[in-house]
């Protein structure tokens, strides 16, 4: 049955029909009719953010922690342009979002009207797809199609730009029988011949390693379950990218830790020495591969990815499998069982022996202190004191993010939300707001740095308004630590603008927002204060004053290969010249 | 000074570049050409020639012919990246499916008197160009042919008073009975 309603009402109805419960937004002139339609209903709850970028990151946190698409509503012009960073972030990390932007009325488009910008033009490169709706007849289809495109295939953000006159126009709304785009049909089922060849290769492997990524998390909890089954069946070691943490439990003995630039010694060396690499839902990012011509030189490679353009983009693979991780993993598990495949036990025992040798280097070891809080220690304690709870971790970007990835152990998928591809400082606080909204009873912690947190700090106000008891755990070293670390490695330790001056008093700041502020600067007080933070049912800013000089290791320096890692102890007791590690070619890299 | 064109060591770039002609079937919707052109510029691919027009009016389907060049892996990336775009139905590499039929049309205006004018007429006749317009001092010729033929024609005409050129870019189709829809 079709119903007659305005374009603005169609937006709300379509959201409701899609099962959307929460949207993140900020009103403005070009979306007033939609805000009026929101006012007249109570099915879709609107969360008022304090900046449109915050709305998008909150929707990302909501989406990643719940598996549902995130929805954003912003106005034209500055509303849309403020959302860009978030959209680019969601594009890089494949997060399903639908972002509805207001636009000036159709007859004013192209006249440089007040708060007009070419939203579809600007967002073309940072969205999976976008629409400018110029006719009320198209609106119901476009709204539902947007959800289909955002969620199917490799997920991503979709923008629907909606001129104000279309919002006022009346038309007939029918929920389409299918949301499907008329031609867009991503491949989800992998080619059986290739899967068979992959399983065959795995069964004959002497030194295999699983290298998994965000694709497993995006594919849903079922994919993580199947991955665990396959890894245990085969007995192979497994490592994962930053985006894939939690798909495989970090407490398991087959887990090698994260790989890549700040990955573990054992994970990176396993990648370097392996003879069969099984990449599931990862994209050979440059943070993972390091120097490409020296990347995993002895391996045959299997690559499972839903996006054909990820295959052979930077690293050549031997067996490409285009498909959804869960589908392909299911086939792999079935084939492995059906053919009663056994891994080469003798070879595997040797391989594990080698890996144990690398593990014995204890690459994440650090010299703890009784005087100052080591950032690694702070994360370790945070993990130990929260591991028995339902905990969701978000991060900003920088050293604290890498320490969180290294020292916090994730057992479940969807519990770890971080800006991986785009590397957006300011992501963590709004993402925590979104995650807390999706999981009201969970403990949601934004592990932050004192520099990053100031980029989206205003969202504290959102947390207070909606009684979202998020915890902001700041590793405060009064530096943009990762920038400083690179300046030490590349620029002779000249700390050009990488120190945090005129910092606010974060305790008072928390209180100014109406939250709780806690400061800790002694290792001995840390546990008690972390418990205090956990036990407060209100938003908290925890100002953890940590060792200012600590750097993030292990590290593969720019232009180096996996077997050329720097470990924590490479400088020795005396401290050699850190600036001599990277050569001229490496300095050109990012 | 350091001379570095790429992030990565030169060793990884040993493949040679080839010219490829791609046929791209797309929904003819607003912005589709901008998506494709933007993809090429954003990812640093080359466009040597681009031709586009709606080919099926009822279904609002356009066919875009792009001539590009790159190594085999770059060409494969271009195809995969194009296929990621939601309005793109399919991408066919006509260079891979065998020697494709390729034609482009050019309009050439030459101005001159005396020997130049006579020579221009002879050349046009030798290439089989049609005369679309003539005055006492000028001609407009139409030539349809391969890109190479058109290039040769234009080069020769330069010597006899060429003042203006307009070209369509390449239209291409695979040989044989099989059709692309």
Structural write-up:
The complex is a heterodimer of chains A (590) and B (181). Chain A folds into 3 domains: 3-173, Thiamin diphosphate (ThDP)-binding fold, Pyr/PP domains (Rossmann fold, 3-Layer(aba) Sandwich); 192-359, Rossmann fold; 375-545, 3-Layer(aba) Sandwich (Rossmann fold), CATH 3.40.50.970. In chain A, 36% of the residues lie in helices and 16% in strands. Chain A is built from 22 helices and 20 strands. By secondary structure, chain A is an alpha/beta fold. Residues 572-576 of chain A have low confidence and may be disordered. Chain B is an alpha+beta fold and 181 residues long. Chain B has helices at 32-42, 72-84, 115-127, 147-158, and strands at residues 18-27, 49-56, 61-70, 88-93, 101-111, 130-134, 138-145, 162-167, 171-173. The chains are: A alpha/beta (590), B alpha+beta (181). Chains A and B meet through loops of A and helix 1 and helix 2 of B.
Structure summary:
The complex is a heterodimer of chains A (590) and B (181). By secondary structure, chain A is an alpha/beta fold.
Between the first and last Cα atoms of chain B, what is the distance in angstroms?
Answer: 52 Å
The CATH architecture term of the largest domain in chain B is 2-Layer Sandwich
Give the strand order, joined by hyphens, for the main sheet of chain A: 3-2-4-5-7-6
Radius of gyration of chain A: 24 Å
Structural class of chain B: alpha+beta
Calculate the mean pLDDT score of chain B and round it: 91
Could you tell me the CATH topology label of the largest domain in chain A.
Rossmann fold
Which architecture name of the largest domain in chain A does CATH use?
3-Layer(aba) Sandwich
Helix fraction bin of chain B: 25-40%
CATH top level label of the largest domain in chain A? Alpha Beta
Tally of strands of chain A: 20
Work out the count of structural domains of chain B: 2
Q: Provide the low-confidence segments of chain B as ranges.
A: 1-10
The gyration radius over C-alpha positions of chain B equals 20 Å
Give the full name of the CATH homologous superfamily of the largest domain in chain A.
Answer: Thiamin diphosphate (ThDP)-binding fold, Pyr/PP domains
Note the beta-strand portion of chain A: 15-25%
Give the fraction of residues assigned to helices of chain A. 25-40%
The gross shape of chain B turns out to be elongated
Specify the number of helices of chain B.
4
**What is the oligomer described by this structure?**
heterodimer
């Amino acid at each position: 049955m079709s119903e007659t309603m305005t374009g603005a009402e169609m937006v709300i109805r379509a959201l409701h029909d899609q099962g959307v419960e929460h949207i993140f937004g900020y009103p403005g002139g070009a979306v007033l009719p939609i805000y009026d339609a929101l006012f007249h209903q109570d099915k879709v709850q609107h969360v008022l953010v304090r900046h449109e970028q915050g709305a998008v990151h909150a929707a990302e946190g909501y989406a990643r922690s719940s598996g549902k698409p995130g929805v954003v509503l912003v106005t034209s012009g500055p509303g849309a342009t403020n959302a860009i960073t978030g959209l680019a972030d969601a594009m890089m990390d494949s997060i399903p979002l639908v972002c509805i932007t207001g636009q000036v009325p159709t007859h004013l488009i192209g006249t440089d009207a007040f708060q007009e910008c070419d939203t579809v033009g600007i967002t073309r490169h940072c969205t999976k797809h976008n629409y400018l709706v110029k006719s009320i007849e198209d609106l119901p289809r476009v709204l539902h199609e947007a959800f289909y495109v955002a969620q199917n295939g490799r997920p991503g953000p979709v923008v629907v730009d909606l001129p104000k006159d279309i919002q006022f126009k009346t038309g007939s709304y029918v929920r389409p029988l299918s949301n499907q785009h008329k031609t867009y049909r991503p491949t989800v089922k992998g080619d059986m011949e290739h899967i068979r060849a992959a399983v065959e290769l795995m069964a004959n492997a002497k030194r295999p390693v699983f290298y998994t990524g965000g694709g497993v998390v995006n594919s849903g909890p079922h994919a993580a379950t199947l991955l665990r089954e396959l890894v245990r069946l085969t007995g192979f070691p497994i490592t994962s990218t930053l985006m894939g943490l939690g798909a495989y439990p970090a407490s398991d003995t087959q887990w090698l830790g994260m790989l890549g630039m700040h990955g573990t010694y054992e994970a990176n060396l396993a990648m370097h020495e392996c003879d069969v690499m099984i990449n599931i839902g990862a994209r050979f990012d440059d943070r993972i591969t390091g120097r490409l011509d020296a990347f995993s030189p002895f391996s045959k490679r299997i690559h499972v990815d839903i996006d054909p353009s990820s295959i052979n983009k930077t690293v050549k693979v031997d067996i490409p499998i285009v498909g959804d991780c869960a589908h392909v993993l299911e086939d792999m598990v079935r084939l492995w069982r059906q053919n009663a495949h056994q891994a080469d036990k003798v070879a595997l025992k040797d391989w594990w022996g080698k890996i144990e040798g690398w593990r014995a280097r204890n690459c994440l070891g650090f010299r703890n202190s009784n005087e100052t809080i080591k950032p690694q220690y702070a994360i370790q304690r945070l993990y130990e004191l929260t591991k028995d709870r339902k905990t969701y971790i978000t991060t900003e970007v920088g050293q604290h993010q890498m320490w969180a990835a290294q020292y916090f152990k994730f057992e479940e998928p969807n519990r770890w939300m971080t800006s991986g591809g785009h590397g957006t400082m300011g992501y963590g606080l709004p993402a925590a707001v979104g995650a807390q909204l999706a999981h009201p009873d969970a403990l949601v912690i934004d592990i932050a740095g004192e520099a990053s947190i100031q980029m989206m700090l205003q969202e504290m106000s959102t947390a207070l308004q909606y009684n979202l008891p998020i915890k902001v755990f700041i590793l405060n070293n009064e530096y943009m630590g990762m920038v400083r670390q690179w300046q030490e490695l590349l620029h002779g330790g000249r700390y050009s603008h990488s120190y945090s001056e005129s910092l606010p008093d974060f305790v008072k700041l928390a209180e100014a927002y109406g939250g709780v502020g806690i400061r800790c600067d002694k290792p001995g007080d840390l546990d008690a204060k972390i418990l205090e933070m956990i036990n407060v049912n209100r938003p908290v800013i925890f100002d953890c004053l940590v060792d200012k000089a600590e750097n993030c290791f292990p590290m593969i320096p720019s232009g180096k290969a996996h077997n050329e890692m720097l470990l924590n102890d490479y400088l020795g007791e005396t401290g050699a010249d850190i600036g001599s590690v990277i050569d001229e070619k490496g300095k050109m890299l990012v | 000074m350091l001379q570095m064109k790429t992030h990565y060591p030169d060793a990884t770039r040993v493949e040679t570049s080839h010219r490829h002609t791609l046929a791209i079937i797309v929904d003819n919707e607003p912005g589709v050409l901008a998506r494709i052109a933007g993809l090429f510029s954003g990812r640093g691919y080359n466009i040597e020639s681009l031709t586009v027009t709606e080919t099926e009016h009822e279904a609002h389907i356009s066919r875009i012919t792009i001539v590009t060049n790159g190594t085999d892996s770059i060409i494969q990336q271009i195809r995969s990246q194009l296929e990621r775009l939601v309005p793109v139905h399919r991408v066919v590499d006509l260079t891979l499916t065998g020697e494709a039929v390729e034609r482009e049309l050019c309009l050439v205006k030459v101005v001159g008197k005396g020997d130049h004018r006579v020579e221009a007429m002879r050349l046009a006749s030798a290439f089989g160009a049609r005369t679309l317009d003539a005055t006492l001092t000028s001609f407009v010729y139409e030539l349809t042919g391969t890109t190479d033929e058109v290039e040769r024609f234009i080069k020769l005409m330069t010597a006899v008073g060429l003042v203006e050129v307009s070209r369509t870019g390449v239209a291409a189709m695979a040989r044989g009975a099989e059709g692309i829809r």
